[in-house]
């Protein structure tokens, strides 16, 4: 996952959850058609700002919207998704100062919470968790089967405060990486929701990355 700083903003370019490994294996079967796209869009209330061109990277409004003053940020530390047999450790991740890449954990068994956005305590905005789909060296990643999630599936995110919070899937969407509406998925405003992201679609062997991103949106159950 590549992120570039631009003033108070960070820009997500190219891949999500697959750019910290040298090569990747093919991504299995393709997901069914998108579900819940309108519902996911309605959770965001802000009007997206124009993104940069695909060549220059797309803007992620990680500072758009204000968290409650003095609120304690509760990081997710564990994610359980029974429908796809996922039990994964969640690490707080940011931007690698040397490479300007979003630092998804190098182990494909672990996933990363974007610590510049809201935590589990939030009453507004998108909590972003991203993970690898797979790796040529390590095999299937924690989010290998993310594309199989459907509306109504449930998941549990446990925070650093020890509290388990349940969520219900409302949408599963697939986007070309150059067309994903990042302002929506990284916003700090709108209704509280959990956004899970990994790679998907055809694998470009020459570019060593997947063409698309799979995005799953869940709301408090």
Automatic annotation (TrEMBL):
Q: Which SUPFAM superfamilies match?
A: Sortase
Q: Kindly state which keywords UniProt assigns to this record, in alphabetical order.
A: Hydrolase, Signal
Q: Please name the Gene3D superfamilies in this protein's record.
A: Sortase (2.40.260.10)
Q: Can you tell me which residues form the catalytic site?
A: 132 (proton donor/acceptor), 199 (acyl-thioester intermediate)
Q: Residue span of the signal peptide, if any?
A: 1-26
In the UniProt record, does the keyword Hydrolase occur? yes
Q: Which GO terms describe its molecular function?
A: hydrolase activity
Q: Name one Pfam family in it.
A: Sortase
Supply the InterPro entries for this chain. Answer: Sortase, Sortase_dom-sf, Sortase_F
Cited CDD domains: Sortase_F
Under what name is this protein listed? Class F sortase
């Amino acid at each position: 996952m590549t992120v570039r700083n631009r003033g108070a903003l960070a820009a997500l370019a190219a891949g999500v959850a697959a750019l910290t490994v040298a090569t990747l294996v093919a991504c299995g079967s393709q997901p069914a058609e998108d579900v819940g796209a309108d519902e996911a869009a309605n959770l965001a209330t802000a009007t997206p700002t124009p993104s940069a061109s695909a060549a220059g990277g797309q803007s992620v409004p990680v500072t758009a919207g204000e968290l409650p003053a003095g609120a304690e940020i509760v990081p997710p530390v564990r994610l359980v998704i029974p429908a796809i047999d996922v039990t994964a450790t969640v690490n707080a991740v940011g931007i690698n100062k040397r490479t300007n890449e979003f630092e998804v954990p190098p182990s494909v068994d672990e996933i990363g919470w974007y610590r510049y956005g809201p935590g589990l305590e939030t009453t507004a905005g998108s909590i972003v968790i991203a993970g690898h789909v797979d790796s040529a060296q390590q095999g299937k990643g924690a989010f290998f089967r993310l594309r199989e999630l459907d509306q109504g599936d449930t998941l549990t995110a446990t925070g650093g405060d020890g509290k388990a919070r349940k969520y219900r899937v409302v949408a599963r969407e697939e986007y070309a990486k150059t067309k994903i509406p990042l302002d929506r998925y990284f916003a700090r405003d709108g209704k509280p929701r959990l956004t899970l992201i990994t790679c998907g679609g055809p694998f470009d062997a020459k570019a060593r990355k997947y063409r698309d991103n799979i995005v799953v949106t869940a709301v408090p159950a």
